[in-house]
Write a structure and sequence with these properties.
about 40% helix, MAP kinase phosphatase activity, 7 helices, globular, 5-stranded mixed sheet, Protein-Tyrosine Phosphatase, Chain A, single chain, alpha/beta, Tyr_Pase_dom, EC 3.1.3.48
Length: about 190
């Protein structure tokens, strides 16, 4: 059943935060949160041996830049890794939404490549990178925001800041308005 924007309203940010507080996953440096999709932190991003052991073929750095996690294509050259860097800040006022679709496209392309394994990270792997993984699940896999939160938080402790959660809510409304099919378990109304 297609759900139209006027009939679908995601949970408020405060309720989404409660969902995250009740669904705590692992707190390691890196966790597989979807088949061949890994979410983690700067420690793993700089650990070439760990990336090699995981078979990572694509890295999305959500904290790219000189004063953040300054890796980049040159850093991963000897691992033959495709790299996409986003100079995002973990600030509720930062507009991460402009990267939702490009990040989802990069992740999807990586997962569709032969033996593709994608590692998405920021400094701690709980806010910026987690938000981009949530956006991927919503855009490419048809998840509602609530289902994406539940799915990822089963595997990793995440905590997108309230500004990013609001941007993800707006994405959820947009996707529902475009006729995304939602199962009965994802409808809030």
């Amino acid at each position: 059943m297609a759900v139209h924007q006027s009939h679908y309203e995601p949970l408020p940010v405060s309720d989404l935060q409660r969902v995250l507080w009740c669904h705590r996953g692992s707190t390691g440096h890196v966790n597989q949160v979807w088949p061949r999709l890994y979410l983690g932190d700067a420690f793993t991003a700089r650990d070439k041996a760990a990336l090699r052991a995981l078979g990572i073929t694509h890295v999305l750095n959500a904290a790219s830049g000189k004063y953040q996690i300054n890796t980049g294509p040159e850093f991963y050259r000897d691992l033959n890794i495709d790299y996409y860097g986003i100079e995002a800040f973990d600030d509720p006022n930062f507009d991460l939404s402009v990267y939702f679709h490009p990040a989802a496209h990069f992740i999807k392309a990586g997962l569709q490549s032969a033996k593709g394994r994608v590692f998405v990270h920021c400094a701690m792997g709980i806010s910026r990178a987690a938000s981009l993984v949530l956006a991927f699940l919503m855009i490419s896999e048809g998840f509602s925001l609530l289902d994406a939160l539940r799915s990822v938080s089963e595997h990793r402790d995440i905590s997108p800041n309230h500004g990013f959660l609001e941007q993800l809510r707006q994405l959820d409304i947009e996707l529902a308005g475009k006729g995304r099919s939602l199962s009965s378990r994802t409808r809030n109304t």
